[in-house]
Design brief:
Elements (H helix, E strand, L loop, with lengths): L2 H13 L1 H10 L4 E4 L6 H6 L3 E4 L21 H11 L8 E5 L5 H12 L5 E4 L8 H22 L5 H27 L6 H10 L5 H16 L9 E7 L5 H9 L2 E8 L16 H11 L15 H13 L3 E7 L3 H17 L3 E6 L7 H13 L1
Parallel strand pairs: 1-2, 1-3, 3-4, 5-6, 5-7, 7-8
The structure holds iron/sulfur cluster.
Length: about 375
């Protein structure tokens, strides 16, 4: 297949995740919704089911969820609940609700109260201290609980062998996505910002082996392209999510390529693999312990501004001339970390802009003006 055909296939999935659920259900498969962040999709795969990422929606309006949510909940969380309440996600066989931020914690209970008659809600509390032995054991205990709940839904026991196999599938998916991020940054004339997002977003909705096979094919085609003659600008993107095609089209219209990203829905989710040998449950706990440089994770050395410096270095190493921060409205973790990120970027001489965004944004005029002005500065 050509690059264009493959990109169109990813785009089709990215724009219609609901069709994916319907197709899996028509094939007799069970589908488990997975809310952000760091839920072990491996356990869902090992139970013979399909994990389906739920990252809000760019097209829905918050209505029913208002009954359960304070207005200062971010739109990602509110729109996830909206889709559960309005029937969009009725075909799910269960949902995993991580609780890693102050919005997701109460939201997990809202979802449980609102949905428990409709579908099993599996609560996941990651430990704050994830690295000491007691933290690892806490993660294992939590994952054992998820395993038991998934086994009830699937009617299948999750064996160590099945879990090891699932880890291999996920490692291969993460590797292909990391490779794609690199190649897309090197060949922006072949992969627009809109298409780049569609490829990474669709990974949350497709069966991982199918997505990986297509992505490896795309990566091989991109790797074979001659060196890029890109004359536009390059930026690093940062934030929780930036998958709105209308917003990303502004980048393409202004010849701004995405060299790499520090986005939770994109690269933050695929940085760390799990060991493929040994106790697979401990391997998953260790994988979570090894996650780093994320505003959502406790940092024992936070006085050193390691994350800010990591992001500034990422910008420089990727060849980006600046950074665009997509700041989700009402996202406390990102807001609170911003001064430290700014400090590190300023010290490293990386120019940046902060764009306030949410998933109910329909008018991108202001963002367009800001991005154009930033491109001129670069
Ligand atoms: S966008 Fe921020 S507040 Fe909302 S779920 Fe994610 S981390 Fe929590």
């Amino acid at each position: 297949m050509s690059i264009e055909v493959l990109l169109n296939q990813f785009k089709e999935v990215s724009e219609h995740p609901h069709r994916q659920i319907e197709a899996y259900k028509a094939q007799g498969k069970k589908v488990i919704g997975v809310l952000p962040y760091y839920a072990p999709e491996e356990l869902v795969l090992a139970a013979g089911m399909v994990p389906m990422g739920i990252w809000g929606s760019n097209s829905k309006t918050i209505s029913l969820a208002k009954e359960y949510c304070a207005t200062f909940y971010c739109t990602i969380a509110q729109l996830a609940l909206e889709m559960l309440l309005d029937g969009t996600l009725d075909m799910l066989d269960g949902i995993i609700t991580p609780t890693i931020c102050d919005t997701l914690r109460p939201m997990s209970q809202n979802i449980r109260v609102a949905m428990s008659k409709k579908l099993p809600c599996i609560f996941l509390a990651h430990p704050q201290y994830r690295r000491p032995a007691f933290g690892l054991q806490f993660t294992v205990d939590q994952y054992m609980h998820i395993k038991a709940e998934l086994e009830k839904i699937s009617g299948t026991a999750i064996t160590d062998e099945a879990l090891r196999q699932a880890i291999k599938v996920m490692n291969r998916s993460r590797k292909a996505r990391r490779e794609f991020v690199k190649l897309a940054g090197q060949h922006p004339e072949a992969v627009s910002a809109v298409n780049r997002s569609a490829v990474l977003r669709s990974a949350w909705f497709m069966e991982k082996e199918v997505h990986t096979a297509k992505l490896e094919e795309l990566n091989a085609l991109l790797a074979a392209l001659p060196a890029s003659q890109w004359k536009g600008k390059k930026v690093l993107t940062s934030g929780i999510i930036c998958d709105n095609p209308k917003l990303l089209q502004i980048f393409d219209d202004n010849n701004i390529a995405i060299a790499a990203d520090d986005v939770a829905q994109e690269s933050r989710a695929i940085r760390v693999d799990a060991a493929e040998t040994g106790d697979p449950m401990m391997a998953l706990a260790q994988q979570f312990a090894d996650q780093d440089y994320d505003v959502l994770l406790y940092d024992e050395h936070s006085n050193q501004n390691r994350r800010g410096e990591f992001v500034a270095k990422l910008a420089k190493d990727s060849g980006a001339q600046g950074l665009v921060l997509f700041m989700q409205q009402f996202c406390d973790p990102e807001e609170m970390e911003y001064p430290y990120l700014k400090k590190a970027l300023d010290e490293a001489g990386v120019p940046h802009i902060k764009l306030g965004v949410d998933q109910q944004m329909r008018d991108f005029g202001q963002a367009s003006t800001a991005i154009q002005a930033f491109a001129d500065v670069l």
